Amino acid sequence: MGRHVERLTLDNLALLPGPCRTCTFWEFDPVRREQIRGHEAEEKAAWLSTMLREWGSVGRVVRVDDQVVGHITWAPAVHLPGSAGFATAPVSPDAVLLSTAYVAPEFRGQGLGRVLVQSMAKDLIKHGGIGAVEAFGAVRPRPEEPHEECVLPVDFLLAVGFRTHRAHATYPRMRMDLGTTLTWREEFETALERLLGVVGAKRRVPRPSAPTVPRASGPVRRISRPRGWRNEAH
């Protein structure tokens, strides 16, 4: 079963599993969401197009056997006005906001959520100028509540490297520092290079040196032949 991660684009936006392909809970405030009712898909595509053009990558999708089975999205909080309604807002100035992460139910339990979070962290480190990722978590998710499925469970966030940054009984704000992630990555790569260097050194067998022929000490004397001597072999 092959799997790979790719950027979220307008081409694969419509392929997202679950309700997220048309959900605009994070992208617009309540007033704007009411105004675009019935046109959510078009408005979400327009939002993504603007972000890709003016800010950069804001999402990843994961495919299994070429089927899109999960995704993750993020952006600066100023571009996700739906976050302003949380009691633990606003997001820290040095952080971007992780808004959604979703894996189709039949593909859960395979580590795809962790893969998506790691892919997000690598992308943001490469982007530069971002100190952390923050997210609003649900302590006890309540699926019956409107838009509750748009908020990630705290247990998931803790499992993939977030910590509580601002506590709250219902929706704490969680944080993952990219500096720590970068340091860990550098230490891992350095350790890996050292390990490969040791293995390579063990595999390099020294070549045997050519045997040396001892040379006679002292000056070399020529042997003179007596006059009239002939080599009978010729």
Low-pLDDT regions: none
| CATH domain fold name | Aminopeptidase
* Secondary-structure content class: alpha+beta
SS element count, helices: 6
Shape: globular
Topology as H/E string?
EHHHEEEHEEHEEH
Based on the coordinates given, report the CATH architecture.
Answer: 3-Layer(aba) Sandwich
Number of DSSP-assigned strands: 8
- For the record, the CATH class is Alpha Beta
Helix content: 25-40%
Question: Nearest-angstrom radius of gyration?
Answer: 33 Å
Task: Indicate how many domains the architecture comprises.
Answer: 1
The end-to-end distance, rounded to whole angstroms, is: 83 Å
Query: What's the mean pLDDT score?
Result: 84
Major sheet: 8 strands, mixed
Pfam family, one: Acetyltransf_1
Region (Disordered): 205-234
Domain N-acetyltransferase: 23-179
Keywords: Transferase
